[in-house]
Design brief:
By secondary structure, the chain is an alpha+beta fold. The chain has one helix at about 5-30; strands at about 50-55, 65-70, 75-85, 85-95, 100-105, 110-115, 120-125. The model is unreliable at about 10-40 (pLDDT under 50).
Length: about 130
C-alpha cells in the first residue's frame, strides 16, 4: 500500500497518541526479560527475530534514511516503535512475500534513536 507522506505522519501521530503507553509497557517488559532491550549495534540489529539496518548512519537532521528489515512473516503488517530525544512514535510496515520490510525513516530527533519491531529486531541510529 502506498501512502502519501502526510498520511504517514498523521497515522504515526495518531498511533503514537493511542498506543504510546502500550508500546512503552511492551518495551519495558522485553528489557526486563533480557529481550530486545539489550545493547544496540550502530545501524544494525540486536537480539530478536530477523535483522534490520538503517542507512545512512548517522542520518542528517531533517533528512530521510532507509530502514530495511528481514525475517518477518511474509505478507503481514509489522508494528514498530521509534524512540529518541523527542519522545516515541509508533508505525506500521507491510512485509513483502519474502518477509522483508523497507521503509523511509525521518531524522527528526537529534541524538540516538531506536527502532523496535514488535516481536522482532531492534536497530539504533544517530541523527546529527
Amino acid at each position: 500500500m502506498n501512502r502519501s507522506r502526510a498520511q504517514q505522519f498523521m497515522l504515526m501521530g495518531a498511533a503514537a497518541v493511542l498506543l504510546a503507553g502500550v508500546a512503552f509497557s511492551a518495551n519495558t517488559a522485553l528489557a526486563d526479560k533480557g529481550g530486545n532491550g539489550g545493547p544496540h549495534n550502530r545501524g544494525g540489529q540486536t537480539a530478536g527475530a530477523g535483522t534490520c539496518v538503517i542507512s545512512p548512519d548517522p542520518l542528517a537532521y531533517g533528512a530521510y534514511g532507509a530502514l530495511d528489515g528481514t525475517g518477518f512473516t511474509p505478507n503481514t503488517t509489522v508494528g514498530y516503535n521509534v524512540t529518541g530525544s523527542g519522545g516515541s512514535a509508533f508505525g506500521f510496515a507491510d512485509s513483502d512475500g519474502s518477509g522483508n520490510v523497507s521503509i523511509r525513516i525521518y531524522g527528526g530527533w537529534k541524538g540516538t534513536n531506536t527502532v523496535t519491531f514488535t516481536g522482532g529486531p531492534t536497530c539504533s541510529f544517530d541523527v546529527i
